[in-house]
Design a protein that fits this description.
- By secondary structure, this protein is an alpha+beta fold.
- The protein is built from 8 helices and 12 strands.
- It has a 12-stranded mixed sheet with strand order 1-2-3-4-5-12-6-11-10-9-8-7, sandwiched between helices.
- β10 (213-221), α7 and β11 form a beta-alpha-beta unit.
- The longest helix has 15 residues, at 102-116.
Length: 285
């Protein structure tokens, strides 16, 4: 099996665009990488795209972020994942993490571990969920507010709580939290929920968009206000807003170890369409 680099995001879209458009929700991470790549300066390429040399229209692909040392893996066989690990290692690429389907992702990580001499570990198992019609809960309990600069401190506090809840083994600096708050505010992608008592109780964000899909994330509820339906109200309201703006679907990734949040999403209309793992790899090849 041979893998080849695509010289540009446009070349990658020409080769794989039809498959990406056919299943936008499943490929939402890749659409996010494409958007970042299109903004890169030609002399400072950070995002690289690789495809398996094959004439089929749905050829497997991989996306490497050289700055984050991260890998996004398309659905592929175990043998293809193993060959991808060998190819990227030969290219001298450093990786710290990967996200992909469980079987292929672990096959890649095991091969990478043998080549690098360093162990890997499972960081997260997630379900990919998709919504095309909102099941609206009782909305009498509050209102959704677009986060602005006036809400920066609140947003940073909520993002810190989200990081501690979802990634307890990771360490995020104040600068990283501030940078994420910047992105949500500047891009009008952060949303807050205020309950009937005028308390700020929950947060959610739109982190990626594709031609017909919006991907939600950063769903967080203040601990003392949990189990009161605030997350369901916010997610359903935000999802409905995306559909009203012309999107055909919404998607999100949810931690399989948190059945409570999974039930919240199912209650407002989300259905599970896939499973992904995030694996931590060695920092050097």
């Amino acid at each position: 099996m041979n893998w080849s680099p695509c010289p540009s995001p446009d070349a990658f879209l020409q080769r794989c665009g039809s498959a990406l458009l056919a299943n936008e929700s499943e490929h939402n991470l890749t659409w996010g990488a494409i958007a970042r790549a299109l903004d890169e300066h030609p002399d400072e390429v950070i995002t690289r795209f690789f495809v398996l040399e094959d004439q089929r229209p749905d050829v497997p692909y991989a996306v490497v972020d050289l700055e984050r040392c991260s890998l996004i893996m398309d659905t592929m066989s175990v043998a293809q994942a193993q060959s991808l690990a060998e190819f990227l290692h030969q290219q001298g690429i450093s990786l710290r993490s990967l996200k992909g389907a469980p079987e292929a992702g672990i096959a890649f990580a095991e091969t990478w571990s043998k080549l690098s001499g360093h162990p890997y570990r499972l960081q997260l198992r997630q379900a990919l969920m998709k919504l095309t019609r909102v099941v609206v809960p009782d909305l009498a309990g509050g209102v959704m507010i677009l986060a602005t600069e006036d809400h920066r401190s609140l947003l940073e506090n909520f993002l810190t709580g989200f990081a501690q809840d979802c990634f307890p083994q990771e360490s995020f600096s104040h600068e990283q939290i501030c940078a994420q708050a910047d992105r949500l505010i500047v891009n009008d992608q952060g949303y807050l929920w205020r309950n009937a008592a005028d308390d700020w109780v929950a947060m959610a964000g739109v982190v990626r968009t594709t031609p017909q899909t919006s991907c939600l994330s950063f769903v967080y509820t203040v601990p003392k206000h949990r189990r009161q339906g605030h997350a369901a109200r916010l997610v359903s309201t935000l999802s409905q807003a995306q559909l009203h703006e012309g999107k055909k679907a919404c998607s999100l990734h949810t931690d399989l170890a948190n059945p409570t949040s999974n039930a919240v999403y199912e209650r407002v209309g989300y259905e599970r369409i896939g499973t992904f793992v995030t694996l931590r790899l060695a920092t050097q090849t």
